[in-house]
Specification:
Keywords: Signal. The chain is α+β, with helices and mostly antiparallel strands and 624 residues long. It is built from 7 helices and 39 strands.
């Protein structure tokens, strides 16, 4: 087979490099506590807020142990400034108001919020992995008082550090269902060169074809928040972080999208010079001289990105990026006049029409389902508390669509398996839930979800327990439930025990399709091989006669209301047999970029099966 020897050499080299990188990432700077579960680690203070160690204490106990002691002291100080009784009473009040509000919403029509449980991470960033586990990552808090800035945005040195955890839904909702996956230790060019877990919070991310998450940028500290050149992948198969070559520029608040060839396009973000200095440089990972990581054992280590010939001079960060069915990348900036079309192959940029709405802050945007083909339109929502309208871009034309009940920012909108949309989370503005900034009180309306049916009509639904605004996130799980998390201020303000290692919280929402009565369609088996485009394949099911639709739903990786990975496609049903349905995949990589998708089978009521993972796309140049 042409190229087979080169591929084998690449695989061997990647395995060796990956092993070395893993060893280096865990060598001598790792601590024993970092290998323990979150609750056990916190028993020694490791899960508390990261704080600088007292030099005299460090001389006796060692740097990490002394820092753990400093963390405990910081947590105790935060508890005095914002007492535990206040947090407990707030959570009890939110629980009661949620129960009272939701009594009016029938689960069969509106769904319901079913579970609420502690998490060891704030969930500033979230990704559903093709193993079914959820990656959560953020920062070590430097403050336990929610009326103050809890993150190390403007810090330099050791306190400017990241953290990451995996939640395994199969292990339930207790502390034992979470595992710490410490980011690599880095030396940041901040003048201190103090080793710390990589401060990759407020980075951008997207999936590679092999199921790994590429993470780019982060906070280098100081200057109101400055961009880091960091480049990592998280490998879901070994549950390990790996570092790649630094990017050409620092990026804090960048956006990333995967394009049809499986590479990732990285744009925007505040540069190393600090807040107010967005970079126009566009980069591609990996560079064209490197093969795209395709198989689970091909781990990118030390690979470089490369600068594209085109620039993207977004004035504001975290633009929405979508790779639509024409293979182009639609860059939808927060400023109305910065709407651009990028050709990732020709490396060109063209103007799109000005969006009818004015400036949009952090709000969601969704590529609308279009059946078997990839999406050709995007719905822009939220970002302006004064404007409840939704705006649709189709080709080169904007239209104003049906409004939601009210305007909100910081919202997260998901495509559900049945093709409906769900909006969760939201606030008046950054750090303001309706009663002023850094005030944890919130208007009830921002806690209510909104539901959009397949005809484009919206209606309000039940309330989530916590108001979640800035840094809130949500994603669809393989069993059809929705995970809701994020917003460190609200999580700290409603922490049932601020002294334990569970800083965050997760809430699970069950959409209405899980409350229709009767059973769900069965999906008993899918091919274990890669599926090509336009290819027919069989999905085993003991309920074949009940299947009316099949759906491929791309997994979500999301932060700051930016979700570039969502995609909803409907493979064609070409035959129904006893024990199986025959399906045909979308026609091209432009319709569905290569990678892992959740396959659902749906019945006539729109009730989905529990999903199974399939991998779509063949490696470019490979024989079939």
């Amino acid at each position: 087979m042409p190229g087979r020897g080169r591929s084998a050499r690449l695989t061997t080299a990647l395995r060796v490099a990956a092993a070395l990188a893993a060893a280096l990432a865990q060598a001598p700077l790792a601590t024993a506590a970092s290998a323990l579960p979150a609750a056990a680690a916190h028993a020694d203070g490791a899960a508390g807020p990261r704080a600088d160690a007292d030099p005299a204490e460090a001389a006796v106990l060692g740097e990490e142990h002394a820092r753990a002691h400093a963390g405990r002291r910081s947590a105790a100080a935060g508890a005095k400034g914002y007492p535990q009784a206040k947090r407990t009473a707030s959570l009890a009040s939110l629980t009661a108001s949620q129960r009272g509000t939701n009594a009016a919403f029938a689960a069969a029509r509106f769904g319901r919020f079913a579970e609420f449980f502690p998490s060891p991470d704030f969930g500033v960033h979230a990704a559903l992995l093709p193993t079914g586990k959820v990656l959560l990552f953020s920062f070590e808090r430097v403050e336990a008082d929610p009326t103050k800035e809890t993150g190390p945005t403007d810090r330099i040195g050791r306190t400017n550090a990241g953290r990451a955890y995996l939640w395994d839904p199969a292990r339930g909702t207790g502390a034992g269902a979470f595992r710490k996956v410490e980011p690599p230790t880095v030396l940041m060019p901040d003048g201190t060169f103090a080793p710390r877990p990589a401060p990759f919070f407020c980075a951008g991310h997207a999936f590679l074809p092999n199921g790994m998450v590429g993470v780019f940028g982060g906070n280098a500290g100081g200057k109101g928040g400055s961009g880091a050149r960091l480049s990592f992948v998280f490998d879901p198969w070994t549950e390990t972080w790996f570092r790649n070559a630094d990017m050409a520029v620092g990026r804090w608040y960048p956006s990333v999208v995967t394009v049809p060839d499986g590479r990732q396009i990285i744009v925007s973000g505040q540069s190393e010079r600090g807040t107010g200095t967005p970079t126009p440089v566009v980069e591609r990972f990996p560079a064209l001289r490197h093969p795209v990581p395709w198989m689970p054992y091909e781990i990118p280590v030390g690979l470089a990105a490369e600068r594209l010939r085109v620039d993207a001079p977004f004035r504001n960060d975290y633009p929405h990026l979508f790779s639509l069915r024409d293979g182009m990348v639609y860059g939808l900036g927060r400023d109305a006049d910065q709407q651009w079309l990028f050709d990732p192959v020709r490396e060109t940029r063209a103007d799109l029409p000005r969006r009818p709405a004015d400036f949009r802050g952090y709000g969601s945007a969704v590529p609308l389902p279009a059946g078997l083909r990839g999406p050709d339109s995007v719905l822009v929502l939220g970002g302006d508390p004064r404007d409840p309208n939704t705006y649709r871009l189709t080709g080169r034309r904007w239209t104003t669509e049906e409004p939601r009940a009210f305007g909100r920012t910081q919202d997260d909108t998901l495509i559900l398996p049945d093709g409906t949309l769900l909006t969760v989370n939201g606030a008046l503005s950054t750090r303001d839930y309706g009663h002023g900034p850094f005030n944890p009180q919130a208007d009830l309306k921002y806690r209510q979800v909104e539901l959009r049916d397949t005809r484009g009509r919206w209606r309000l639904g039940p309330a989530q327990r916590l108001p979640r605004g800035y840094h809130s996130n949500a994603l669809v799980l393989p069993d059809g439930r929705v995970l809701v998390t994020g917003d460190e201020l609200q999580q700290i303000a409603n922490d049932p025990d601020i002294t334990d290692g569970m800083d965050g919280s997760i809430e699970l929402y069950e959409p209405a399709y899980l409350h229709q009565g009767g059973g769900r369609p069965a999906l008993d088996g899918v091919p274990g091989r890669e599926l090509g485009y336009g290819e027919r394949f069989e999905a085993a099911t003991s309920t074949a006669a009940a299947v009316r639709r099949a759906v491929l739903l791309a997994p979500t990786t999301v932060t700051h209301a930016v979700n570039t990975s969502q995609r909803h496609l409907e493979p064609a049903i070409t035959a129904v047999r006893s024990g199986a349905v025959e399906l045909r995949t979308p026609p091209s990589a432009a319709d569905a970029p290569p990678g892992y998708y959740m396959l659902f089978l749906l019945d006539a009521k729109g009730v989905p099966s529990t999903a199974k993972w399939v991998k779509l796309g063949h490696r470019p140049g490979a024989r079939r």
